[in-house]
Amino acid sequence: MSTTDRIEKSTLIRAPRARVWRALSDAKEFGEWFGAVLEGPFAPGAVVRGRIADPAYAHVQLEMIIERIEPEQRLAYRWHPYAVEPGVDYSAEPTTLVEITLADAPGGTLLTVVESGFDAIPHARRDEAFRMNAGGWAAQVENVRSHVESAR
To answer: How many domains does the chain have?
Structure first.
């Protein structure tokens, strides 16, 4: 796999795995730290839709196709990365796979996000989608950490 195909970000969350899992697996709570309003619930095969809460991106409609849920271990979904241009239909493009995993770690829970499949994104927007999502996931792992640690 090339280095342009995959983003990986991790953080240690000082909370039990069950608490971190709740922040990931509940669509409403996921939206709180992610900065989106989502219509859940998360369930294998479900299509979860929503919108970005930030007024600058209020036009962005999210669509997550839930692939896999392993309680307290893994949440995996597919989506169209950095699909933010108003009026553009991204539905014919390939999706990327986002896998969020949890593992016990000294002092809490290790959360790891891996997003893969960027090499299949159309060339014209691949680099920007990769760059924006790499920065986005760096911020989001900190958002979920802060959310969980402040709301224990």
So the answer is: 1
83, part of any domain: yes
First to last CA, the chain: 38
pLDDT band at 152 (very low <50, low <70, confident <90, very high): low
In a domain? residue 132: yes
Question: What is the residue range of 98's domain?
Answer: 6-150
Average pLDDT over the chain reads 95
Locate 114 and state its tokens. Answer: 């891996």
Does the residue 122 lie in any domain?
A: yes
* CATH number of the structural domain spanning residue 49: 3.30.530.20
- Dihedral, CA of residue 101, residue 66, residue 22 and residue 117, to nearest 10: 30
Q: φ, ψ for residue 105 (rounded to 5)?
A: -150, 155
Q: Is the pTM of this model over 0.85?
A: yes
Task: Tokens 């979860």: give the residue.
Answer: 48
Contacts (Cβ under 8 Å, ≥6 apart) of 77: 48, 64, 65, 66, 67, 97, 98
